[in-house]
Write a structure and sequence with these properties.
alpha+beta, binds glutathione, about 210 residues, 4-stranded mixed β-sheet, about 55% helix, 4 strands, single chain
Length: about 210
């Protein structure tokens, strides 16, 4: 099976998929799509990812899109280690945590949304940064409460091993630091990130490790 990941080094949705591929020790090639040059909107990228996003995972030439759906596919085909539980209740809890980030923080801070704030409302850099930080703080505050209420298991959000919510958390915290969001108020999230950052699979997926040039 030939697997090619279309990604961008600083894209957090791509970072999620790189982590999952590495955790599952899947061999893959990468094909960079430069978001700053607008390559995501090219006809070539839209042919595999009609929304004009990264990541796209090509499996023997067939595209899979949407990072969480890609991770769900990876979990089905490469079950070890599992990232989504087979137990219905645990699965719902894991997905809910992942979706706080992937559905309710990340889309609001996407590049196309930031550009739209500028073109439609004239938002300057300071206003866009403020917007970016606002949605991160709101989402992480809720996630810290959720995780704190179930505290005890740890160190990962997934307990003694990372699950799909840890795969979403680490890239989101990377983004938060880029925008100088104070993170010391999220001790449970930071503890989970520390545990994840000790794993080679997470380290190898870090933007600084995959940045071209
Ligand atoms: N829900 C999608 C989101 C993908 C996404 O937002 N990708 C961003 C990079 S992290 C992107 O390609 N943005 C391009 C743009 O906004 O123009 C997923 O999880 O794959």
């Amino acid at each position: 099976m030939k697997i090619v990941l279309h990604d961008y080094w600083r894209s957090s949705a791509s970072y999620r998929v790189r982590i999952a591929l590495n955790l599952k020790r899947v061999e893959y090639e990468t094909a960079p799509i430069n978001l700053l040059e607008g390559a995501q909107a090219s006809a070539e990228n839209r042919a595999v990812n009609p929304q004009g996003f990264v990541p796209t995972l090509l499996v023997d030439g067939e595209p899979l899109v949407q990072s969480l759906a890609i991770i769900d596919w990876l979990d089905a085909i490469f079950p070890d280690p599992p990232l989504i539980s087979k137990d219905a209740f645990a699965r719902s809890v894991q997905l809910a945590r992942a979706l706080v980030i992937a559905a309710d923080i990340h889309p609001l801070d996407n590049l196309r949304v930031l550009k739209r704030l500028e073109s439609q409302f004239g938002a300057d850099q300071a206003a866009r940064d403020n917007w970016y930080r606002h949605w991160i703080v709101e989402g992480l505050t809720a996630l810290e409460m959720v995780v704190g209420a179930g505290a005890g298991a740890g160190p990962f959000l997934g307990g003694d091993a990372p699950d799909i919510s840890d795969v979403c958390l680490v890239p989101q915290l990377y983004n938060a630091r880029r925008f100088n969001v104070p993170l010391d108020v999220y001790p449970n999230l930071i503890a989970a990130e520390s545990a994840a950052s000790a794993l080679p699979a997470f380290q190898a997926a870090h933007p600084d490790r995959v940045r071209p040039g």
